[in-house]
């Protein structure tokens, strides 16, 4: 009887190593050989799960999108709309272990995409997924007449840029976490009106 | 009599090649050999001006800081404070050839710095120089009682993040130039009051 292997679990183990490799070496550093060294798996074992460089990067981006989505969905946001938006935006900042890891991987993909590596879309991780969510939020705020900005589209562009800029400055250690939190708090406060009725 | 060579001009030629190399390969791609291939100069000629990888990167960062500073100083900003701040911020966005080139080099340095390459400061290009200038501007606006933000420090943090986020989204081609211009326009309009007296 063949040894029973939990293939999903093996792939999950591997993705941690792929992320670690990307964080250390950038997207350019991703090769079967480097991943084998990073993980301690044989090249053959790596290839069994992820046969090419392309499949490694696709897998890493997919898993990143999934992990961030799960984290955001699990947020217990409550209170008035302002507080909920603030909580959502703060969850995007690299202020703890997992979000720092994700943000570093995201930046490596972004940097490679700008240099012409074919990951401009990268399973939505670079822009699309978050932008769609932000737009949903700003539209819902506008629908409730709580958005103090020209349009929901402009508000989403602005919040997205603010967050990605803060992410970069945090990763560069040029900004203290409290400064980033404060920037989010201030921006939400001026952009979103407090509801006139309680709740 | 030895051949007369304009060494400054030779170094200026070289810096264009260094930037092109960084934009194509990232900071990791910078080696004497790659720069020699990129420039068509012999390795010996490259080494004559820039003997080590470190000196190449230092030179690239220095020259970038200088070029951006000259560009910003040359801006003919006029009109009310709002318009001047808007003009300054727009000049930072990668909306034309040179600023796109600079922003790509900046992002490559930033990405390498996050990954632990020792360029966190990189001659101020990653954060320090621009932040100091933004702070000067927001303090001056606050002094004229025109700043609608908690503090000049918070306003500078926020504007800096907004600009760097917009830069990234423009480089990723996820944002149209007009959307970025609009975001800057909106933000300045809500952050800076129009003077009550004409002028």
Polypeptide structure, described:
Two copies of one chain form a homodimer. Chain A has helices spanning 7-25, 32-39, 43-49, 53-73, 81-91, 97-114, 128-143, 152-171, 177-191. The first copy, chain A, has 199 residues and is an all-alpha fold. In chain A, α1 (7-25) crosses α2 (32-39), α1 packs across α6 (97-114) and α8 runs antiparallel to α9. The mean pLDDT of chain A is 91. Chains A, B: Keywords: DNA-binding, Repressor, Transcription, Transcription regulation. Chains A, B: Residues 8-68 form the HTH tetR-type domain. Chains A, B: One of its GO terms (molecular function) is transcription cis-regulatory region binding.
Number of helices of chain A: 9
The residue fraction in helices of chain A comes out at 55-70%
CATH class of chain A: Mainly Alpha
Task: Please name the CATH topology of chain A.
Answer: Tetracycline Repressor, domain 2
| Structural class by sheet pairing and helices of chain A | mainly alpha
What is the beta-strand fraction of chain A? Answer: under 5%
- Give helix and strand order of chain A, one letter per element, not per position: HHHHHHHHH
Euclidean distance between termini CA atoms of chain A? 61 Å
**Regions of chain A with pLDDT < 50 over 5+ consecutive residues?**
none
How many separate domains of chain A? 1
* Overall CATH architecture of chain A: Orthogonal Bundle
Task: Indicate the overall shape of chain A.
Answer: elongated
Backbone CA Rg of chain A? 19 Å
Largest sheet of chain A: none
The H-level CATH homologous superfamily of chain A, spelled out, is Tetracycline Repressor, domain 2
GO molecular function, one term (chains A, B): DNA-binding transcription factor activity
GO biological process, one term (chains A, B): regulation of DNA-templated transcription
Protein name (chains A, B): Transcriptional regulator
Keywords (chains A, B): DNA-binding, Repressor, Transcription, Transcription regulation
């Amino acid at each position: 009887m063949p040894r029973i292997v939990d293939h999903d679990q093996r792939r999950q183990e591997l993705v941690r190593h792929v992320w670690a490799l990307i964080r250390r070496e950038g997207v350019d550093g991703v090769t079967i050989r480097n991943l084998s060294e990073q993980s301690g798996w044989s090249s053959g074992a790596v290839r069994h799960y992820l046969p090419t460089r392309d499949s490694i990067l696709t897998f890493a981006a997919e898993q990143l999108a999934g992990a961030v989505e799960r984290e955001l969905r699990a947020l217990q946001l409550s209170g008035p709309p302002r507080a909920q938006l603030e909580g959502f935006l703060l969850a995007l900042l690299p202020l703890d272990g997992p979000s720092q890891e994700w943000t570093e991987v995201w930046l490596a993909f972004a940097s490679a995409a700008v240099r012409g590596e074919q990951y401009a879309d990268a399973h939505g991780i670079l822009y699309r997924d978050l932008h769609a969510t932000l737009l949903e939020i700003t539209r819902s705020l506008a629908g409730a007449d709580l958005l103090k900005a020209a349009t929901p589209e402009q508000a989403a562009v602005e919040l997205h840029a603010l967050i990605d800029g803060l992410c970069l400055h945090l990763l560069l250690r040029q900004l203290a976490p409290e400064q980033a939190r404060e920037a989010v708090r201030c921006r939400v406060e001026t952009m979103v009106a407090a509801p006139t009725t309680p709740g």
